[in-house]
């Protein structure tokens, strides 16, 4: 049994959880079904899975199985994205009465949160931090713009009838 504590890896996961929480806070304030905790866990899980993938590759790198094991880090990312896509799909709701779809932005923010987590796992702290701020600006700022546009559309559509 190995009880080594990899402090840097733990810090990476915690940092991802923090960044995911920043994105999730906006979704929480907007009253969306996937909010603070979901985004925190998605970002942290993505970081953890990439770190574990690196650990597995390192473990078998010097083993007698080296010739038979082919490591492809892109497959780890693909698996994370596939899993997150199922989670995101669960947030999307079609409302037939209004003929509208809700939850697409939340699904996209969950996917982006996993990307932030993968970036942190790959030591791209600056990129992850800046893009977290960009996502928050998009969610808050453009949400306001989107509501204004929808108000204008409603007034415009009402005049045609």
Structural features, described:
This protein has 5 helices and 2 strands. By secondary structure, the protein is mainly α. A two-stranded antiparallel sheet has the order 1-2. A hairpin with a 4-residue loop joins strand 1 (93-95) and strand 2. Helix 1 (7-29) packs antiparallel against helix 2. The longest helix has 36 residues, at 125-160.
Record the SSE blueprint.
Layout: H1 7-29, H2 36-61, H3 73-89, E1 93-95, E2 100-102, H4 104-121, H5 125-160
Antiparallel strand pairs: 1-2
Helix pairs in contact: 1-2, 1-4, 1-5, 2-3, 2-4, 3-4, 4-5
Query: Would you list the SSEs in sequence order as H and E?
Result: HHHEEHH
Mean pLDDT equals 85
The major β-sheet equals: 2 strands, antiparallel
Q: Work out the number of β strands.
A: 2
Tally of helical runs? 5
As a percent range, the share of strand residues is under 5%
Helix amount: over 70%
- Unreliable runs, pLDDT <50, ≥5 residues? none
Q: What Rg, in angstroms, do the CA atoms define?
A: 20 Å
- Termini Cα gap: 73 Å
- Described by the principal axes of the CA atoms, the overall outline is elongated
Quickly give the structural class.
Answer: mainly alpha
Strand order of the largest sheet: 1-2
């Amino acid at each position: 049994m190995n009880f080594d504590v990899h402090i840097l890896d733990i810090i990476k996961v915690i940092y991802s959880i923090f960044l995911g929480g920043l994105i999730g806070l906006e979704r929480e304030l907007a009253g969306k079904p996937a909010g603070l905790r979901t985004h925190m866990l998605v970002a942290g899980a993505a970081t953890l899975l990439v770190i574990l993938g690196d650990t597995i590759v390192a473990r078998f790198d010097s083993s007698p199985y080296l010739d038979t094991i082919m490591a492809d880090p892109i497959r780890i990312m693909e698996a994370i994205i596939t899993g997150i896509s199922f989670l995101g799909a669960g947030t999307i709701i079609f409302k037939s009465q209004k003929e509208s779809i809700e939850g697409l932005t939340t699904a996209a923010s969950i996917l982006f949160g996993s990307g932030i987590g993968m970036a942190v796992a790959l030591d791209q702290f600056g990129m992850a931090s800046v893009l977290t701020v960009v996502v928050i600006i998009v969610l808050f700022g453009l949400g306001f713009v989107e509501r204004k546009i929808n108000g204008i559309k409603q007034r415009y559509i009402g005049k045609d009838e």
